[in-house]
Amino acid sequence: MLETVSEVLSVRDLTFYLKDLMEQDSVLSNVQVLGEVSNLTYHNSGHVYFSIKDSDAQLSCVMFRSNARQAPTMQAGDEVVLSGATHNRTQVAVDPDHEGLAAVLRQSRTRSPDGGACVARF
After folding, report:
1. Is residue 87 within 8 Å of residue 30, measured between CB atoms?
2. What is the pLDDT of residue 83?
3. Order of strands, edge to edge, in the sheet holding 58-63?
4. 3-state SS class at 106
5. Is 48:62 a contact under the CB 8 Å cutoff?
6. Residue 60 forms beta bridges with which residues?
7. What per-residue confidence (pLDDT) applies to 116?
8. Where do the domains of the chain lie?
9. Whole-angstrom distance, CA of residue 110 vs CA of residue 112
10. Which of 61, 54, 56 is nearest to 86 (CA)?
11. CB 118 within 8 A of CB 109
12. Which residues of 65-87 are buried (b: 16+ CB within 10 A; e: fewer)?
């Protein structure tokens, strides 16, 4: 799918490409991770959203309702070993100095129908 490093991708193309890579990788499709629970939210949907972290990195996690019902209750600060598979959430670290970003923002601002500032969300 990707022909060159500088190819501009649609959001769909990038997410499907990464999803395929993660599903084909035997480590990422069945992984165990040790970390400290943080940013813990028990949502009213029954899903549990949280992060696990160590001194150098942090991973966003979700436990869907069907699994959360069977799991012990966690608290922020708990050290846990989690098992699961990588999921579809992806984050891009944006380079604000990239010429294409500046050009797109300039173009968006000139096309703003109300003349107001355009807000870029990353």
Report:
1. no
2. 85
3. 58-63, 48-53, 31-42, 79-84
4. helix
5. yes
6. 51
7. 44
8. 11-91, 92-122
9. 6
10. 61
11. yes
12. eeebeeeeebeeeeeeebeeebe
CA dist 40 and 51 (Å) reads 7
Structure tokens, 43: 């949502």
Rounded CA separation 78/88 (Å): 25
Instruction: Please give the single-letter amino acid code of residue 38.
Output: S
The residue with tokens 């870029």 is 120
Tens of pLDDT, residue by residue, the chain (122 residues): 555 556 788 888 988 888 888 888 888 778 888 999 999 999 999 999 998 999 999 988 888 888 888 888 889 999 999 888 777 666 665 555 555 555 554 454 444 444 444 343 33
State the greatest distance between any 2 C-alpha atoms of the chain, in Å, as a whole number.
54
For 45-59, b/e burial (b = at least 16 CB within 10 A) is eeebebebeeeeeee
11-91 has CATH 2.40.50 classification: yes
For 43-104, the DSSP string reads -TTS-EEEEEE-SS-EEEEEE-HHHHTTSPPP-TT-EEEEEE---S-------TT-HHHHHH
Residue type, 45: S
